[in-house]
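Task card 7
Instruction: Convert sequence to structure tokens.
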Amino acid sequence: MTRRWDFAVVTALALLAAVVLYWSGIWVIPLTMYSVHEAKGRQVVLLYKTDHQDLLRACRELSARCKAGDLKPGQYNVLWNPAPEAKSFPKAILAIPPSHVIIDKDGWVMVAIIGGMAHCGVVVYPEGNQKGLGDKELVPGLWYYDDGYHEVPDYEKHIQSLKPH
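Output:
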């Protein structure tokens, strides 16, 4: 009888501890720190280690594939639980790697490297419609967007500080 009681007590205490840790947010801290570090690395890749002309061409290729009916408009997960179609995306996009890619029926393509609470990535619009969402034009037609530009004064200094030496 005591073994069954001991097991029940240990199980109840473990569940209680899990609930307390969950509600206190302690489990979020290591995950958030890892996610922020990983996202910063992808930000550096996107801003300073990517051929922006290749990325522009790759996004326009996805837009053309959508227009031709080869891809459906919508959001494609790339990093976590990738959509099967995402495997056929151009290397210039997959090399970043983005968390997801959105292809709009109107022809714009968004490559998001960070989503959720903070957002950043690039947007490419069809030729002739060169501006919408975007804070910094990396090359004509390829717009970088980042919530930091709207939340932090002189955010461009932070963006420049990410540049590898």
